[in-house]
Hints:
DinB/YfiT-like
Amino acid sequence: MTEERQFGWSNMFVTPEEDPRSQQGYRGEQAVLVGYLDDYRKTLVLKCAGLDAEQLARRSVEPSTMSLLGLIRHLAGVEHYWFRIHMDGYDGPRLYRSGDDRDEDFNGAVGDPEVVREAWETWRGEVAFAEQYVAAAPGMDFAGAKGDELRDILVHMIEEYARHMGHADLLRERIDGRVGQ
Length: 181
């Protein structure tokens, strides 16, 4: 059953006064890049708010394996790869990649509360690592372990979140009819 499509101020995830995202007033290159990335991270949390494990794991349409839970896991893996592995030089295994399954982040996103808890915990841990890493970096020109400049990684992360928040919009609308914001 498809829910009725809803749109308008009354169906926003939060009121404009309660919206944790700012998307304005940043001064300087680092503040702009970090600020916009933070706003996209907050958007992920907003898009998933109020959903249970089954709803978070609900797939979009076959044959896609995409779900909001899969996006949480995927973005945890992206944070891990770019900040912990690529920039900091961590030499361990990648998150949600085992054997031949390059899509374990989505394929393993099942409607189990423990899987949801673990995904959020992992995502929050990787975001915290990234935030600390960026705060400690000497500047936007700083080159990480693999040679990329921090500015390039931050721009890439903004692009990654922006693309996936479009997916999150459609996934959320499919779950309960909520749109926008």
